[in-house]
Amino acid sequence: MTEVTIVLPPPYRQLSPNARVHPLTLAKWKARAKRDAWYATKEKVIGEPRWARASVKIVFYHKDNRRRDEDNLIASMKPYIDGIVYAGLIADDSHKNLIRLPVEFLIDKEDPRVELVFTRV
């Protein structure tokens, strides 16, 4: 297996760097996002070894075409990436082991989501 696509719900608003939430509330939402990513990854990589290096392409599918802050969306993905690492797809998410490719923004009115496409390097 050289490519794995993990499909997750759009990042929770509470995870945005601009969100004003209590630290305990933020911790709950981070834990929920990590758990979501862990389960989605475990379904795809049962018994697979960790990849030492990989690239990731993040594709956001939104309901509409309104303006969004790309930096905040990317920052809110951190708990998802952590959950994927914890599930064992990649060894870690350091800059040497995880190559981040340009982010894409597409429209899907019926099924908003985020897809993370990991490719073994």
What order do the helices and strands come in, and which of them pair?
Layout: E1 3-8, H1 23-44, E2 54-62, H2 70-75, H3 78-87, E3 98-100, E4 104-107, E5 113-120
Parallel strand pairs: 2-3, 2-4
Antiparallel strand pairs: 1-5, 2-5
What are the key terms here?
5 strands; 121 residues; 3 helices; alpha/beta; single chain
Overview of the molecule:
With 121 residues, the chain is an alpha/beta fold. It is 31% helix and 25% strand. α1 (23-44) crosses α3.
In short:
The protein is built from three helices and five strands, in the order βαβααβββ.
Tell me the distance between the termini. Answer: 12 Å
Describe the biggest sheet?
A: 5 strands, mixed
What is the count of DSSP helices, taking H or I runs of 4+ residues?
3
Strand content: 15-25%
Residues in helices, as a percent range: 25-40%
N to C succession of SSEs = EHEHHEEE
Low-confidence stretches: none
Tell me, briefly, the overall form.
globular
Oligomer: single chain
CA radius of gyration: 14 Å
In round numbers, the mean pLDDT is 93
SS-derived structural category: alpha/beta
The total count of strands amounts to: 5
